[in-house]
Amino acid sequence: MREISAQKIIETVSELCIKANVFLPDDVSKSLETSALNEKKETALGIFREIIENIKIAKNSGEALCQDTGIAEIFLKIGQDVHITGGNIIDAVNKGVYEGYKKGFLRKSVVNDPLERKNTGSNTPAVVYTEIVPGEKLEIIVLPKGGGSENASTLEMLAPLEGWEGIKKFVIESVKTKGIKSCPPLIVGVGIGGSFSSAPMLSKKALLREIGSVSKNDFYAKKEQELLNAINETNVGPMGLGGNVTAMAVHIETAPCHIASMPVAISMQCHSCRRMTATL
Amino acid sequence: MNYSLTTTELIAKIPDLKVGDRILLSGIIYTARDAAHKKLESLIKTNQPLPLDLKNSILYYCGPCPAKPGKVIGSCGPTTSSRMDSLTPLVLSKGVKATIGKGPRSKEVVEALKKYKALYLVATGGVGALLAGKVKKCKIVAFEELGPEAIYELEIKEFPVVVGNDINGNDIFTKK
């Protein structure tokens, strides 16, 4: 058994929140640069120039990439042989989020209640997901998730007979009607299978995959490419103003499901795909 | 067409500007997003004085990051405009001449823009650090209690926008 202090978790989460909001992961910035080469229209090119320039400005100035520094989504993979000392792990994560958002001058975007809507002033509570895994390490991923792209995410309980064509139609329609509002070029996370509650989780976990990675399942790896091609034929384009690049990647994650069901969840991710990982 | 215009010049030029025109905009604009719109609606409907003059004003759908010490403002890009669609005809009726945000507008807003001869301008989302550099001055003018959703007066210089909807009912999102 290995001990990890709550204080260490607070410090790590705080640092991850700041870094995630300022430094775009290399796979995302490289994909943006490559994608820009596929555009010819001046409006689309202008948007790509702004996006690429913004990444440099944020990196050099320490300013947040986007004012929507998100609701802090925290993914914990807790080794079953880890013992947390000096406090509760969830409290430690929230304290880390509070400290990071304060120290990093990041926007506080969380309200206390869906209807009362008073800003909590601390960007807490965070949304924390825990998973128990073998081993004695603790992996922490911070995904600052913007409201615009989260609002564009969606779920449909399709009938099994609708098959792949049904799934494809749902994804393309969702990109055209909702993805257009969520700062394309997108990363589209698709969760297929599981249940009403687990399909969205699959789709969100799909966003944690690096751009350029493909599904471990050959069948779905091909389907990822098929969806990406179809999405990029919609002419939604960067910021919805038209162009060849509507999405940079489609990631599909699947799970077994009920004989009557075929849940399909789509997590839309804006071009500012911020995520940062630490392993303790 | 590419233009560099002050907010006053923009307002004078509204009839000439077309979907897809790119503008570097300079002058005064006011931030207002969901919560500020709700407060403005309540004041307008109860005939109370407004904390800012909406006549010939430009609203920017934005809730900025806090300014770091020595900085004017934090990251400050646009938010999704469609969330403000239901209240946009009301603020246009009070004299707002342009709104700035991201993403498409409803049919009702496109019609209201024709009726009130106003523009919808699109700024690039997710480039808030770049846009912060275009803001020269920033002060709170109303609803400070809303935090990032307060109304801020911004003095901008060469802030890049694209005309998304013009006064003839054209829409960049459907006519690409």
What does the model show?
The complex is a heterodimer of chains A (280) and B (176). With 280 residues, chain A is α/β, with parallel strands linked by helices. Chain A has 8 helices and 10 strands. In chain A, the strands form 3 sheets. In chain A, strands 4-2-5-10 form a 4-stranded mixed β-sheet. In chain A, α1 (6-22) crosses α4 and α2 runs antiparallel to α3 (42-61). Chain B is of the alpha/beta class and 176 residues long. Chain B is 23% helix and 28% strand. Chain B contains 5 helices and 7 strands. Chain B has a 5-stranded mixed barrel. Chain B is globular and about 45 Å long. The relative contact order of chain B is 0.23. At the A-B interface, α3 and α5 of A face α5 and β7 of B.
Q: Would you spell out the secondary-structure blueprint of this structure?
A:
The complex is a heterodimer of chains A (280) and B (176).
Chain A: E1 2-5, H1 6-22, H2 26-36, H3 42-61, E2 71-79, E3 82-85, H4 89-103, E4 127-133, E5 138-145, H5 147-151, E6 154-158, H6 163-177, E7 186-194, H7 198-206, H8 218-231, E8 247-257, E9 262-269, E10 276-279
Parallel strand pairs in A: 1-3, 2-4, 7-8
Antiparallel strand pairs in A: 2-5, 5-10, 6-9, 7-9
Helix pairs in contact in A: 1-4, 2-3
Chain B: E1 2-6, H1 7-13, E2 22-31, H2 34-45, E3 58-60, H3 88-93, E4 98-101, H4 107-116, E5 119-122, H5 128-132, E6 135-142, E7 151-165
